[in-house]
Design goal:
heterotrimer; A alpha+beta; B alpha+beta; C alpha/beta; B: alpha+beta; Histone, subunit A; two-stranded antiparallel sheet; 3 helices; 3 strands; about 10% strand; flat; C: Amidase signature (AS) enzymes; about 40% helix
């Protein structure tokens, strides 16, 4: 049977502050365990929280970027539960008065522009990290706790149940990530856990206005696994329903190795978090000017950037989408475009050879000097160097940040061109290779490639092969 | 209110992660029932239209700048931890030992 | 006169005039502690070496002519639920028996900055939950006026220490009467400041929206001195009041003329000890004969205070005490998995009263009960605040009993939690309203035990409270007195130090 798939996502983002939400401990990733800890984030008896202003600002920026309505008054609550990574046995979060309500994200999908609605955006604190001794959480005899992460500001974004496939969930997430990257809110690294996603998924007969029983899927650690896990769940639930069976409301883990979901079959009582207003923090009152100031400074968002790349630079859609998807690349494009006017050529170089070099050498676009890139392309345009040399110089430029112009000068890479320089070389090759010349003249036209190569060798690769080809053909007619 | 406090004690003790011995449970059921009986007095008050007070003071929310301050030295972080391994705090397994079931 | 018999104010003058040294003072108090504490058990931990260190350093500064705080060199005792770096902070709980904090509470930092030698950490009801200091996991503190009686609680250790001359000043904490009720039972002056007036950073949380650090002292002037030091905004406490009050001392002798005084009908109730009620009425007429305008005033919401309090405070406590789980600090009991470890650690580590309150609070917050219990209690709290706001439009100060009875016998109320809860009935509503409230000596009961008066004023009116307290101190019947410790001749029995 056919079902309508209904998916809602709950996304957690670590905000890009340098200190934690309630204390001055560093948020740096990859520190020695338990070295970014203080009485506050360890929940030592008597310690109290104080808001990090930047975290509030970033949360508001994120909400604005998602068209979510920032509430003038919101409140923090305690979510009480016991777990060894939760130092106070409660998480400071927001329950019935979140930072922002509603909103949506629009993005390019297969079917055109897609809009997914949001329920809410709120701010909370991150928990510590558990390491399980053994292969899995089930087999581990004990676990080790690192509280470095505890207290990092965390943004929770909850979508409306408006997503209808694993593929769409993935597209939404990728675009959410991009929007948050553009807004400068989070580094959104799924592999480091600074972006995480849980999903609620249920099936219902097409046209039905009631939701089916949902399952919650957790532990999806990449965009790919979100898509796979949700597709798997669709299949699992459809099979159950087809067989006349029912879906049990439960939480499951995505098992990345075996590519399936595993029920957590929590033997614990269903969670009762006993939320109540956090007495240690005053309610958050945000006035219009606080919000407006942040709105004014809102960085350009992906949809605006895409539009501008199309209109301002006349790029084709494919190039514009690709550049938009990589904010570093599109920043480099725009900076270089300020000094180099052939936008389409520039875009081609950036998404082609440059991107390849960056990946090869593990570099970021921000490490590239736009002046050097423009310099390189101008050298090519002016015929000072040829394409193969340009590619070679690009590699060195990426690797060592050397100026192409200086490289050309130092190494004498200027192009050899003009009949004056090339005709003697062509004549020499013809004289040195009588057999090849003979077979060419007998009709084996392909031999010209061999001869061309010989001439190129004599120029040290610095000539335009087209020009040599013309001269060669001319001379061989004789 | 017809609440079975013996059962409630089990539920609430579980939520609060408190092991109580049978004697304590018996006592607790009686006392909980008594105390809540007294507490229920407030239910006779008409509070419609009244906002709850979660803070008795009305001051602007305090905020600090996003600046890194020194953390505690590792030795102080761990000094009170009952069980440690290397530079971590050690805890028993987080899932019940019997629940080794996999898949569905 | 021996050194311990002077007030902190007098000692401060003596130090400034170099009539004595801080070291001499500390040694005198340490001797006193050695003599008396084995019988009274006011201290859980004594810190003689540290106190002497601080004293000597202050003395050296004084010799060098450095500018010093008026309280520099004056010893002080600190309730053992206030965090002291490097010194055990047990909250009188088995679960924190060996816990050594790596940081100082903001108020302790203030004591250290001023150069006040800390004599030790005083006993309390476990996590400040109780009214007799019998809920201490280690030993009960006894009332120096009568060793068979309780000192009140939860700041019973601090109150008993000040009353018996084992410290001139002490810090306590008050959630629902924990400073005022023991002050009344021990015959000393105990101030619960306006909520937010003194930083809570480092005060181990019981019920965060109610907890306040306050003072125990012999007189209004001593109280003002210590309050001057510990009051003020704290960037580490988001609920601390952002402004600073004026000096608490300069107004002390302004008298009571033309003050509008309300005698709280509910706090001179028929159910109270008759002599206590009579003492309150006598105090009221003393005010009247000195130019105050005195009327009886009814605050009907007081009748609901206890019920609201015993939902709000345990609810917050159930959350605040979740962190004692055997992972990062404190008592730990092994378990086959984390859940068993949590349950056993907490089951074995907490005492009965703490468990009781965690259970009540967890229940009141749990799904299906929140609206009827916790939410309703918070709405009642709003009604209480409104009633206070109204009454303070008509009165400058309210007066009533600080405790319905003088000190009761050890063991008298331990088996009946509700009876114990009722001993805070005079104090609780002020806590819910967040207003400053002061317990002062109000004369003596025929049993020889002290009785306490409670003065209440609008938020941030500590100066007014102390002014009225100072007035009462000038009158023979309400003058602070020290107990005659007839037990110190006999050799001390086994103690708890």
């Amino acid at each position: 049977m056919n079902y309508e798939v209904v998916i809602g996502l709950e996304i957690h983002l670590e905000l890009q502050t340098i200190s934690k939400l309630f204390c001055g401990c560093s948020t740096a990733f990859d520190r020695e365990p338990n070295t970014n800890c203080c009485p506050v984030c360890l929940g030592l008896p008597g310690s109290l929280p104080v808001f990090n202003k930047r975290a509030i600002e970033l949360a508001v920026i994120a909400a604005l970027a998602l068209n979510s309505e920032v509430q003038r008054g919101s409140r923090f609550d305690r979510k009480n539960y016991f777990y060894p990574d939760l130092p106070k046995a409660y998480q400071v979060s927001q329950y019935d008065r979140p930072l922002a309500r509603g909103g949506y994200l629009e993005f390019e999908a297969d079917s055109g522009v897609r809009r997914v609605g949001l329920e809410r955006v709120h701010l909370e604190e991150e928990a510590g990290k558990l390491q399980h001794a053994g292969n899995s959480i089930y087999q581990a005899e004990y676990s080790l706790v690192d509280y470095n992460r505890a207290g990092i500001p965390l943004l929770e974004i909850v979508t409306a149940p408006q997503i209808h496939s694993g593929r769409e969930a993935r597209a939404f997430l990728e675009n959410l990530r991009l929007t948050m990257l553009y807004a400068g809110v989070s580094d959104c690294k799924m592999e480091e856990g600074s972006l995480r996603c849980d999903a609620n998924i249920s099936l219902r007969p097409p046209g039905s206005d009631r939701f089916g029983t949902k399952a919650e899927v957790k532990n999806m650690n990449s965009f790919r696994s979100v898509e796979m896990a949700l597709d798997y769940e669709v299949g699992r639930q459809a099979k159950l329903l087809d067989a006349g069976s029912i879906v049990v409301q439960e939480t499951c883990h995505w098992d990345e190795v075996n590519k399936r979901t595993i029920s957590l079959r929590d033997k614990e009582e269903s969670s009762d978090y006993r939320y109540f207003p956090e007495p240690d923090l005053m309610p958050l009152q945000l006035n219009n000017s606080f919000i407006e100031k942040l709105a004014e400074k809102m960085p350009e968002l992906p949809r605006q950037r895409l539009q501008r790349l199309l209109e301002q630079y006349g790029l084709d859609k494919e190039a514009a989408v690709l550049l938009t998807a990589n904010p570093g690349l599109s920043n480099l494009f725009e900076e270089t475009a300020g000094i180099y006017g052939r936008y389409k050529d520039l875009a081609n170089w950036i998404q082609g050879d440059l991107l390849y070099q960056l990946r090869e050498q593990g570099k970021e676009p921000v490490e590239i000097n736009p002046n050097q890139l423009a310099e390189l392309l101008k050298l090519l345009d002016e015929g000072v160097i040829n394409r193969p040399v340009a590619k070679e110089l690009l590699s060195e430029m990426v690797q060592r940040g050397l100026s192409p112009k200086k490289l050309v000068e130092d190494r004498g890479l200027t192009m050899i061109s003009g009949p004056q320089k090339l005709v003697p070389l062509v004549e020499q090759v013809i004289a040195d290779n009588p057999e090849a010349v003979e077979s060419y003249q007998k009709g084996k036209k392909k031999v010209i490639g061999f001869l061309l190569g010989k001439v190129m060798d004599l120029t040290g690769g610095r000539a335009d092969p087209g020009e040599i080809n013309r001269i060669l053909k001319d001379k061989l007619k004789d | 209110m017809g609440i079975d406090f013996n059962r409630e004690v089990d539920r609430v003790a579980r939520l609060a992660r408190l092991s109580l011995d049978p004697d304590e449970k018996k006592h607790m059921a009686d006392q909980l029932s008594d105390i809540l009986e007294t507490a229920r007095r407030i239910q006779e008050l008409d509070t419609s239209g009244i906002e709850p007070t979660s803070h008795v003071i009305n001051i602007p929310v305090a905020m600090r700048e996003d600046e890194v301050k020194p953390s505690l030295p590792l030795s102080k972080v761990l000094q009170n931890a009952p069980r440690r391994e290397n530079d971590y705090v050690k805890v028993p397994r987080v899932t019940p030992p019997a629940s080794n079931e996999e898949g569905k | 006169m021996e050194l311990f018999e002077y007030s902190a104010y007098e000692l401060s003058k003596m130090l400034q005039r170099k009539k004595t040294s801080s070291e001499e003072l500390v040694r005198s108090y340490l001797k006193r502690i050695e003599l008396i504490n084995p019988r009274v058990n006011a201290y859980i931990t004594a810190t003689p070496a540290l106190a002497l260190d601080t004293a000597q350093s202050v003395d050296n500064k004084r010799i060098r002519g450095e500018e010093l705080h008026p309280l520099a060199g004056i010893p002080v005792a600190v309730k053992d639920n206030i965090s002291t770096a490097g010194i055990k902070t047990t909250c009188a709980s088995r679960i924190l028996e060996h816990y050594i904090p790596p940081y100082d509470a903001t108020v302790v930092k203030a004591l250290n900055r001023a150069g006040m030698p800390v004599l030790g950490k005083t006993n309390l009801d476990e996590f400040a939950m109780g009214s007799s200091t019998e809920n201490s996991a280690f030993f009960p503190t006894r009332n120096p006026w009568d060793l068979e009686k309780v000192p009140g609680g939860s700041s019973g250790g601090s109150a008993a220490a000040v009353a018996s001359g084992m410290a001139p000043l002490a810090l306590g904490s008050d959630t629902g009467g924990s400073i005022r009720q023991p002050a009344a039972l021990c015959g000393v002056t105990g101030l619960r400041p306006t909520y937010g007036r003194v930083s809570r950073y480092g005060l181990v949380a019981f019920a965060s929206s109610l907890d306040q650090v306050g003072t125990l002292a012999l007189s209004a002037r001593d109280t003002a001195l210590l309050l001057n030091l510990v009051a003020g905004p704290d960037p580490h406490d988001s609920t601390s009041l952002p402004d600073r009050d004026r000096d608490y001392i300069d107004n002390l002798t302004a008298g009571v003329e033309n003050l509008r005084v309300g005698v709280i009908k509910q706090n001179v109730a028929d159910s109270f000890d008759r002599e206590v009620t009579a003492a309150v009425l006598k105090a009221a007429s003393l005010l009247e004969s000195n130019g105050a305008r005195v009327e009886e005033v009814s605050l009907p919401m007081i009748d609901y205070g206890l019920s609201a309090y015993y939902l709000i405070a345990p609810s917050e406590a159930s959350s605040n005490l979740g962190r004692y789980d055997g992972v990062r600090y404190g008592y730990f009991a092994p378990g086959k998995d984390i859940s068993e470890m949590f349950c056993r650690t907490r089951g074995e580590g907490f005492g009965p009263e703490v468990k009781r309150r965690i259970m009540i609070g967890t229940y009141a917050l749990s799904a299906g009960y929140y609206d009827a219990y916790y939410l309703q209690a918070m709405k009642v709290r709003t009604m209480i605040r409104r009633e206070y706001e109204e009454v303070f439009k008509r009165y400058d100060i309210l007066i009533g009993a600080a405790s319905p009875t003088p000190a009761f016998k050890l063991g008298e109320k331990t088996s009946d939690p509700l009876q114990m809860y009722l001993s805070d009935v005079c104090n609780i509503t002020d806590s819910l309203a967040g207003v400053p409230s002061l317990a002062i000596p109000g004369g003596f009961h025929s049993s020889g035990l002290p009785m306490g008066l409670q003065l209440t004023a609008a938020p941030q009116s500590e100066r007014l409270l102390l002014q009225v307290a100072c007035f009462f101190e000038q009158h023979p019947e309400t003058k602070p007195r020290r107990p005659e410790l007839d037990f110190i001749e006999s050799p001390p029995e086994e103690g708890g130090m």
